[in-house]
Amino acid sequence: MGEEVGEYQGAYKITKGLLEKYGPERVLDTPITEAGFAGIGVGAAYWGLRPVVEFMTFNFSMQAIDHIINSAAKSSYMSAGQISVPVVFRGANGAAAGVGAQHSQCYAAWYGSCPGLKVLTPYSSEDARGLLKAAIRDPDPVVFLENELLYGESFPVSAEALDSSFCLPIGKAKIEREGKDVTITAFSKLVGHALKAADILAKEGISAEVINLRSIRPLDRATINASVRKTSRLVTVEEVFPQHGVGAEICASVVEESFDYLDAPVERIAGADVPMPYAANLERMAVPQVEDIVRAAKRTCFRSR
Amino acid sequence: MATAFSAAKFGTQFFPVGTRSHENPLFGHLKTPACSFLGSTRRLRFSSASKLNQINSHRRSVVVAVSDVVKEKKSKSTSNLFLLLFIPAHSIQLITKEEGLELYEDMILGRAFEDMCAQMYYRGKMFGFVHLYNGQEAVSTGFIKLLKKEDSVVSTYRDHVHALSKGVPARAVMSELFGKTTGCCRGQGGSMHMFSKEHNLLGGFAFIGEGIPVATGAAFTSKYRREVLKEADCDHVTLAFFGDGTCNNGQFFECLNMAALWKLPIVFVVENNLWAIGMSHLRATSDPQIYKKGPAFGMPGIHVNGMDVLKVRAVAQTAIARARSGEGPTLVECETYRFRGHSLADPDELRDPAEKAHYAARDPITALKKYLIENNLATEVELKAIDKKIEEVVEDAVEFADESPHPTRSQLLENVFADPKGFGIGPDGRYRCEDPKFTEGTAQV
Fold first, then answer.
1. EC number(s) per UniProt (chain A) (predicted)?
2. How far is B403 from chain A (nearest CA, A)?
3. Which chain A residue's Cα is nearest to B179?
4. CA–CA dist A263, A230 (Å, integer)
5. What ipTM does this complex have?
6. CA pair distance B276, A33, nearest whole angstrom
7. Is A34 a catalytic residue?
């Protein structure tokens, strides 16, 4: 349920065809009341239905955040396990192109800090399919952060991903590209940037290992730490505000668990610490670009200042 | 104190919906109010015609009621009373020539500007989300042209024309849309976030319903300054513009309640264009007659034909006068229509072409033009001259925006805080962070 999911075929056409296939009882167009319909979704989940609540963008989830956190995330704990909330909140997250300050924030860090929630950030089509299925089957509330610009990108898909019960495990990161000199962690759209950066670095003789986090909560600390112990250098990449972000948590985790293995200070690449500007050139400066990741990786390898 | 329903010289009457006309529960009480500002339990007091002195006294009241959409729904509902204000059609002169030309010019500016935005978007000069206002000009012009400069307007993402009507120069709005430093927000806000301190345009908000509490706060300030800070001449009114989709949102109801409770000088203007992106108002709302929600909270609710600028203007005059004289808020539902899609990225496939044609035939600009000519207030030649002038204004705006510089790199980090160093200014006039004791705190260093 959500705004424009039925007759309009989805604000970004993600739910196209679902209304014809499943009917108006299962695909509900709601009025514009995020707090209301998120709450209704949570309540339905209390009683055993499995709603998928769509926010047109996660910026609008701020109007419903009370239900996501207080009614959904905390319920299993507060009721000592009597109530489980198998709800999925999904929608577009992060910066798009020229949509201004109120449509461009990334909520991975905010939701990722809340116990009781699972937060997933798919990158490729396989990720999206496997993780969403896993999210819907999961008995806990899941926040599924997609990305508007990724909706338009195509990815190669393996045969097993097309199988109708293909699921990916929640809480496991994926090593998109193996390497031995520096670990680059990223999620969502910036995995693409990180892979491009790794190509550029390879030409300069630096072999970068790119980790697609896939799951912000629970964070796959084991994979990240194993990778850092192998390469001894870390660059974390994320799209929006640096303070208290995902990169900060990864840094802390690596320093706590793999300090002796680090050969260089951890580099954090994040968006500019400003609300997203509208002007095109300012927006480009406010979001990490491939060059920024390359520069940071080189700094950890002491190839540049 | 006059009686509530003086049908006499003025004739503007507020019949609360859901009551018979001979009962007037909300407006019959004539107690003299002497309550304090906050938490007032004053009953609503209907003012007599003499108080509404802005209005030309030999004009009859104007507003017409019911849309076809509402008539259809009405046939299913049990109550058959709704808010009606009748107009004796052509015989009375409603505006002077100057006013008529001003209204015409403002609407043409709105229309020409939005059409140019569409062109510029398809040429790649504008980007992101652009929501155009074509077809709804009567509401913006009808209301905003009655305001003073100090009055505030709060809008939604469909805010270009509200900005223009309020007086923000077309050059500044166009530059903002192109993302240049000469824009009204230096290129940092964009299409959906038009702000102007000088013209008291308090935004441009992306989330629907977000502007309503902000507008209510502006109205609160106006009343606070008058009654608590004793600035006797502060009678600023705030207008909040929003759509039909917003009327299902919690913030709307919360603000209706508080505005009526505290009698804030605000007018809530619903631009009901029947569609929220692809969601029809009738599919989303349990009772689609939005104006009825006013009396539920203790304020008058009026429905007006939003495609007719003169009717909108007449209702606006009453509502704004009501707010200005301290009697409290009004909810005005303007039935209007947007000729284009929700935004320039919207394929607009769900709206029935017959519905679009029905409203296209009631284009507010054509209607005003016809009125002006038929009542000998203007000639074709004069109107064409205005058309030409506005065309030049809009083209000049585009040229100006094109030639304006892009923001410099250093602008990225500016304006995050009003205080650039983040900690505020201490009593000695220096930034606090420059005072070593402040940054030490109370820790034993």
1. 1.2.4.1
2. 15
3. A279
4. 11
5. 0.86
6. 12
7. yes
Tell me which of A103, A148, A193, A239 is the catalytic residue: A103
Each of the 445 residues of chain B gets a pLDDT tens digit; together they read 443 333 333 333 444 443 333 333 333 333 333 333 333 333 333 333 333 333 333 333 333 444 444 444 444 443 333 344 444 444 456 789 999 999 999 999 999 999 999 999 999 999 999 999 999 999 999 999 999 999 999 999 999 999 999 999 999 999 999 999 999 999 999 999 999 999 999 988 999 999 999 999 999 999 999 999 998 888 999 999 999 999 999 999 999 999 999 999 999 999 999 999 999 999 999 999 999 999 999 999 999 999 999 999 999 999 999 999 999 999 999 999 999 999 998 988 889 999 999 999 999 999 999 999 999 999 999 999 999 999 999 999 999 999 999 999 888 877 877 665 555 566 777 665 556 655 544 444 3
Strands B279-280 and A142-147: unpaired
The residues on B that touch A, with CB distances below 8 Å, are 127-129, 176, 179-181, 185, 187-193, 205-209, 245-246, 248-250, 276-279, 283-285, 350, 406-407, 409, 411-413, 416
CB B188 within 8 A of CB B414: no
Tens of pLDDT, residues A172-190: 999 999 999 999 999 999 9
Question: Which residues in A lie closer than 8 A to residue B343 (C-beta atoms)?
Answer: none
CB-CB under 8 Å, B191 with A278: yes
Decide if B191 and A100 are in contact by the 8 Å CB cutoff. Answer: yes
Cα atoms in the Cβ-side hemisphere of radius 13 Å centred on A43: 6
CATH 3.40.50.970-classified regions of chain B: 93-403
Q: Cα–Cα–Cα angle for B4, B7, B12, nearest 5°?
A: 75
Q: Do B127 and A97 touch (CB under 8 A)?
A: yes
* Closest residue in B to A96 (Cα–Cα): B128
| B392, two tokens | 């030049």
Q: How far is CA B63 from the centre of its chain?
A: 18
Whole-prediction pTM: 0.82
Reply yes or no on domain B93-403 having CATH 3.40.50.970: yes
C-alpha distances in Å from residue B54, one per residue of B10, B129, B206, B298: 12, 39, 34, 24
Q: Does the beta-carbon distance from A279 to B207 stay under 8 Å?
A: no
Q: Given CA atoms A85, A89, A94, A100 in this order, what sign does their dihedral have?
A: negative
Are the C-beta atoms of B409 and A283 separated by less than 8 Å?
Answer: no
Q: Which residue of B has its CA nearest to A97?
A: B128
Contacts of B205 in chain A (CB under 8 A): 102
> Which SS3 state, helix, strand or coil, does residue A197 take?
helix
Catalytic residue flag (residue A257):
no
